[in-house]
């Protein structure tokens, strides 16, 4: 749909009726509805295929022109003759919305249009990380089409997020999660959310009735509530000033799908979505949030303050950090090790590793995996101590701990431009090399090792 904005000033009341007279200063047209979801995803750096229906009219052609300007494929945009392209016209006076006028048709789309949309989904589903079903109750997402899309996505193990509409949520059954607000959840469950107990009951009913993987309800200024394995938690919002909530729901589902597609855990994805919503509600009109603006709220990967420990990254935040670095064009270097007793050989090795790119991310074995590799007497220094020392090195940009015997799963997430290991790996297979653009081996300095340092201490006792 198209969002049409009429901007003006209001200085008097009409003599014809008790209504404001708006002196128009400007007007503009932007992508709205599910297209606003598309726009939000593009702002985050995602690639998108939009599927939906327009009319054979001037508004529909205007929408297609916007797609061309954004280099978006029109393959999934289906034209149904005799059906108008939806447009919402909002009148804004002194930064306040005073009226809205809608041009639309809410009857179900034709069976031919359903089949055309489904063909586009089936053609591209294997290339996608996830599917968003953005329902505006305009007749496009019929029960048949919604279930067909969800079935297709589940067949290929894709995440499915739904922004629901109406009272009957059965057409969203088997999705990954839904994003209703409190009012929508009440309409669907009949449970009025007034406290934690009723919130939990609504979440549970949604999860069970729709057979969802997760249950979620957005709570406006109170954040997002999620239910995982019968445990409810609430992720608080970070909004400071609210000027216009138009499109905030579109931003939330866009940011959630973006973060989950990158491998973020649900709670981390919700925090990311809250930060994205905080950006857009501070703007006027259907707005989008760039990754840079979200980072200013979310602080993922941001070095806040002077503490070197700000370099420590959790697994939940790693995917978002990586996307931020990629959008900035940074070349990512990965290396890993125990780094039990840091010595000059380590420092030289890490300095060499950093020279292969712009950002050095270091995987560090936790205490349990060090014991498994080195024996029960190791590590000498705890994980937190080892991380603290590594964070103090200028050449190290980020550190992340792991508990497996190898960092293969982390390297698969990072997919570094360069993977660096020691010269002792010459002629051997380097773990994770299949996920790196290239592998570099750096010779260790002779005579430097944690084991030799430990032995030297023992000999002096």
How would you sum up this structure, described in words?
By secondary structure, this protein is an alpha/beta fold. It has two domains: 2-226, Ribokinase (UDP-N-acetylmuramoyl-L-alanine:D-glutamate ligase); 308-460, Rossmann fold. 36% of the residues lie in helices and 21% in strands. It contains 15 helices and 17 strands. The chain has helices at residues 34-44, 58-69, 111-124, 143-155, 182-189, 196-210, 248-261, 266-280, 291-298, 318-327, 344-354, 367-374, 383-391, 408-414, 450-460, and strands spanning 2-13, 20-31, 52-54, 77-79, 87-93, 96-103, 130-134, 159-163, 177-178, 215-218, 224-228, 231-235, 332-337, 359-365, 398-402, 418-422, 438-442. The strands form five sheets. A five-stranded parallel sheet has the order 15-14-13-16-17, with helices on both faces. The protein has a four-stranded mixed sheet with strand order 2-1-5-6. The chain is elongated, with a radius of gyration of 26 Å. The relative contact order is 0.08.
Oligomer: single chain
Helix percentage:
25-40%
Number of strands: 17
| Uncertain residue ranges | 242-246, 300-306
Strand residues, percent: 15-25%
- First and last CA, distance: 78 Å
Fourth-tier CATH superfamily name of the largest domain: Ribokinase
Going across the biggest sheet, name each strand in turn: 15-14-13-16-17
What is the C-alpha radius of gyration, as a whole number of Å? 26 Å
Instruction: Quickly give the CATH architecture of the largest domain.
Output: 3-Layer(aba) Sandwich
Largest sheet: 5 strands, parallel
In CATH, the topology of the largest domain is named: UDP-N-acetylmuramoyl-L-alanine:D-glutamate ligase
| Shape annotation | elongated
Structural class based on helices, strands and sheet pairing: alpha/beta
List the domain count as a whole number.
Answer: 2
Helix count equals: 15
Mean pLDDT: 88
CATH class of the largest domain: Alpha Beta
